[in-house]
Design goal:
The complex is a heterodimer of chains A (274) and B (654). By secondary structure, chain A is α/β, with parallel strands linked by helices. Helix content of chain A is 36%, strand content 24%. The radius of gyration of chain A is 19 Å and the shape is globular. The chains are: A alpha/beta (274), B alpha/beta (654).
Chain lengths: 274, 654
């Protein structure tokens, strides 16, 4: 079923060609019992762009990301991915679709090495059977070599060679965040969802992470949708920004447009409520 | 006529040595690099093809004879190849320190008139673009790592791989020209130009000829009997003469394998995987490793700790003698063998030193405990004394005559003499040609007979003929009462303590000495953790009363040992303070090779020095700092000044 306003895309300020609509969210409403987390929101994510969702605490950003990732099924409204309407899905189905994510509070296997953690990102692509994997024979070995090579390219890309064999539990926070990004990348996603990738980082770590996000968008032409609190980072990184407040969408556009939007300024600086 | 042929048969340039190695060792590995988690290797034949492809690429972008080709990047086979390829084209390779800020690079690139620059990655390309308008001769930039480079303007830039492809595609056009240029290279052609880090003033470009490099390599390889099966790990800055001699000169002469780590951070793991047989490191690296071992032993279980302490005591007692081939009792020998099985062997393996036949340290004095530690494990660690202008080697220690406090005997082919003022002079086959575009400095450093002043004061020990270096000749001064002031000597003694990273001693022309101390964050931080001392920042830890107490103890010990030396007894430290920030090359306080720039430190912290001498016990200060990306900031602190315990001097018997 075709999406209402599929367009041919646009060109960003720095000269990147952004493609057509990759994901379209139409009139999404999400209720938990009596609580309305998201109220009638529509927006789209274009192929190749960096799309940010921002808003004050409790605005419904993470819920929105969970709707995009398919973890929540919206109470009302439809989600289209690659112009196909999406129903309720299992997590592995989401992964096969080409959507990967990182979490606000890190969700890695602490006892496993960095390498093994990243390898789990490729799990859905491994095809050899249980027996052959257990015996480490033929296809299973060949398959693992191929996957390892892909993983090593990601390790190289994110510059984490020195912690390859280190158990994740021993790593500092900033590096764990990077490992989580690596695992998400290992799935070779079409759409990458980042939930507060810079939270709790110092300036230098933020700069590194921003560079990685830009590079991977550039190099692997991965579409990225991110939630972030640090306004400076968001405004520098993203091509278009959705602003949420109390579950509603109060702004949508380029960073400049959003920055000058009165509703957004009010939401962030606060206005007198009667 | 016969003589001419013989001379011609001996390779006269690095490219000629490469051709010889391809014939002699074609199938043996020449270079290895860990990439994507695997050691990739290139045989001499494969490396030769890659290098020729780069050289053809250079010709295709118009590299001319005598051009400077700058290389800015970490140790990678490709960067070594670029240097050889540049030589093949008759150009001069100029490796630069990759951690230099853009401003420093601008000076060097401008001075050498670089027309071509090869950058390791985007970061280096950005720096070159930033200073591009100042480097007027710049024609073309090539980069090794393609990452993040897609959006750049490529009209005067391409990747090294593309450059190679371009060269190979045009090989019918360039092949003959390349062979012609290679055949033109002689023993007197410039092999490389290395910029000295410049403890004082602007960096100077040291021109080294093929003769300098090849003769030095030949002599030093003979001295230590290196061969084609040796392995080195190339991890020290490519702009440093030592790396050029070890990873290029000696590697080309003997045909041994050069291994490049995956990144600076993986160096220790990679070292362990390769297990080099020939290894060079500045004292700093050995110190760091020993500190790590000690920290880990502190956390080890009781049995392990006992084993370690027990067998290390045995090793200290007999290890060095066994290494030097001196007689040792049978029981001690057995004890040592057992220790080797249980402790030394596994420890050496962890450090990556299992296979070392020859290890060198130089650049600074190494702490006696550190030096003995490695030697007692059976690692043949030796000292050498050298500098860029000498193609490294001036003196070195022969096997079996290794001592902590000397730097050995003159290297083969090198003559050494002591000047009237105690300064050390040398001349030999490695003595540099000139400073590039700087005849005045050349004339003031190298006299017409070829003797070069080292700037270091020292003397030969009459009994052994070994050279001992006291200090920089210009730093050796007099105190107000006319006694000798040798700051480096005292600083080195202080730096032998793991908790002291850096020390700067003042006292020239004054009545007593004082010192700035930099604590070592790793060692002191660990100590603080074990002693339940909480701290939030480097600054807070540095100013902690208990840290002061500990450092005060170290200073008192140093004072006692200085007091025992009749010549230098005046150098005892009366007052000291712990600096609130680490001395840093980005702030200009140290050179890129991490030597303290005494005058700059004295200028910058003049207020602190004044406070050290006027009897105050604390001072408020503001310091400007430069971040890695060149931005500036300011930090403020109130520093405490402590008095140190002074030991009674031993009077020389009249």
């Amino acid at each position: 079923m075709p999406v209402s306003h599929a367009e041919e895309g646009y060109v960003t300020a720095d000269g990147r060609q952004i493609g057509g609509t990759l994901m379209e969210l139409k009139n999404i409403t999400l209720r938990f019992g009596g609580v309305v987390a998201i109220k009638d929101i529509s927006f789209d994510i274009r192929d190749g762009e960096i799309r940010a969702i921002i808003g004050p605490n409790g605005a419904g950003k993470s819920s929105m990301l969970n709707v995009i990732s398919g973890f929540y099924v919206p109470t009302e409204g439809d989600v289209y991915f690659k112009k196909v309407k999406r129903g309720p899905m299992k997590p592995y189905e989401v992964a096969r679709l080409g959507i990967a994510r990182t979490f606000q509070n890190i969700a890695l296997f602490d006892g496993m090495s960095v390498l093994d953690n990243i390898m789990t990102g490729r799990l859905t692509m491994m095809k050899s059977g249980l027996l052959s994997q257990a015996l480490w024979y033929g296809a299973a070995a060949r398959e693992e070599y191929a996957h390892r090579e892909k993983v090593e390219r990601i390790i190289d890309f994110l510059e984490i060679q020195n912690i390859r064999k280190t158990p994740v539990g021993r790593l500092p926070y900033g590096l764990k965040k990077r490992v989580e990004l690596a695992r998400a990348l290992a799935a070779e996603p079409k759409l990458l969802l980042l939930d507060e990738p810079m939270a709790g980082m110092n300036v230098e770590e933020k700069e590194d992470m921003s560079r990685f996000i830009l590079d991977l968008n550039d190099e692997f032409s991965t579409t990225i949708c991110l939630i972030e609190h640090d306004m400076g980072v968001v405004m520098d990184l993203s091509d278009r920004v959705v602003v949420m407040d109390y579950g509603r969408k109060i702004g949508d556009g380029t960073p400049d447009e959003v920055r000058n939007n009165q509703d957004v300024i009010d939401a962030y600086l606060g206005v007198a409520h009667d | 006529m016969a003589e001419v042929t013989a001379a011609a048969a001996e390779p006269q340039s690095i490219p000629a040595l490469l051709a010889r190695n391809v014939q002699r060792y074609g199938g043996l590995p020449a270079f290895r690099e860990k990439e994507f988690g695997i050691w990739q290797s290139w045989t001499w034949a494969q490396a030769n093809n890659e290098i020729r492809a780069i050289a053809l690429g250079f010709l295709s972008v118009g590299v001319e004879r005598g051009d400077s080709v700058a290389v800015i990047g970490r140790n990678r086979p490709r960067h070594y190849w670029v240097m050889i390829a540049a030589q093949m084209c008759g150009a001069i390779p100029v490796p630069l320190y990759q951690d230099a800020v853009a401003e420093e690079m601008a000076y060097v690139l401008e001075h050498c008139g670089a027309r071509f620059v090869v950058c390791g990655d985007q970061e280096q390309v950005d720096k070159v673009i930033e200073i591009g308008d100042r480097v007027k001769d710049l024609q073309h930039v090539a980069y090794t790592d393609k990452r993040g480079m897609r959006k750049y303007d490529h009209s005067k830039m391409n990747s090294l791989a593309d450059l190679q492809a371009q060269g190979v595609a045009g090989h019918y056009r360039y092949e003959a020209e390349l062979d012609k240029r290679i055949s033109e290279l002689t023993y007197d052609t410039t092999c490389v130009m290395l910029y000295t880090s410049g403890t004082t003033g602007k960096p100077k470009g040291v021109v080294l000829s093929n003769r300098n490099i090849i003769e030095t390599a030949k002599n030093s390889v003979g001295f230590d009997k290196l061969n084609a099966l040796d392995e080195v790990v190339a991890y020290l800055p490519m702009a440093w003469v030592g790396d050029f001699i070890f990873s290029m000169g000696q590697a080309m002469w003997t045909g041994f394998t050069v291994n490049c780590p995956e990144s600076a951070a993986t160096m220790m793991t990679d070292l362990r995987e390769i297990g080099p047989t020939y290894f060079f490191a500045p004292p700093r690296v050995f110190e760091g490793q020993l500190t790590n071992v000690m920290i880990r032993m502190e956390d080890a279980g009781r049995v392990k700790k006992w084993l370690f302490d027990h067998f290390m005591a045995v090793a200290r007692k007999v290890g060095p003698s066994i290494l030097d081939g001196k007689p040792v009792g049978v029981l001690d020998r057995l004890h040592y063998v057992l220790g080797n099985l249980l402790v030394y062997g596994p420890l050496k393996n962890t450090l990556g030193f299992s296979r070392i036949r020859v290890g060198y340290t130089a650049g600074e004095a190494i702490g006696p405990e550190i030096f003995e530690f490695y030697r007692s494990l059976g690692i043949n660690l030796k000292q050498l004394y050298g500098q860029t202008e000498a193609s490294v080697f001036i003196t070195q220690q022969p096997d079996g005559q290794v001592r902590n406090d000397t730097v050995g005997v003159p290297s083969p082919g090198v003559e050494v003499k002591i000047g009237e003022n105690g300064e050390v002079y040398y001349r030999g086959p490695g003595t540099f040609v000139e400073y590039f575009k700087n005849p005045e400095s050349t004339a003031s450093t190298k006299d017409p007979e070829g003797w070069v002043a080292t700037g270091d004061a020292g003397y030969f020990e009459p009994e052994t003929g070994h050279l001992r270096i006291i200090d920089r000749a210009k730093d050796v001064g007099k105190m107000a009462d006319g006694r000798l002031f040798a700051p480096k000597y005292v600083e080195n003694k202080l730096k032998f303590y793991p908790s002291i990273l850096e020390a700067v001693v003042f006292g020239s022309g004054r009545d007593r000495c004082t010192a700035f101390i930099n604590i070592d964050l790793t060692a002191v931080g660990n100590w603080a953790e074990r002693n339940n001392i909480a701290y939030a920042s480097y600054q807070e830890l540095a100013g902690h009363p208990r840290v002061y107490e500990m450092i005060r103890g170290h200073v008192a010990e140093v004072n006692r040992s200085i007091a025992a030396d009749p010549i230098l007894a005046g150098c005892q430290i009366h007052r000291f303070l712990i600096l609130h920030k680490e001395l840093d090359a980005d702030d200009g306080e140290m050179t890129r090779t991490r030597k303290v720039r005494r005058n700059i430190v004295a200028d910058k912290y003049a207020d602190l020095i004044a406070a050290l001498y006027d009897g105050r016990d604390s001072i408020y200060t503001e310091t400007e700092v430069t971040y890695e990306d060149g931005r500036k900031g300011k930090i403020t602190a109130t520093l405490r000044i402590a008095d140190a315990e002074i030991a009674p001097e031993q009077r020389r018997a009249a």
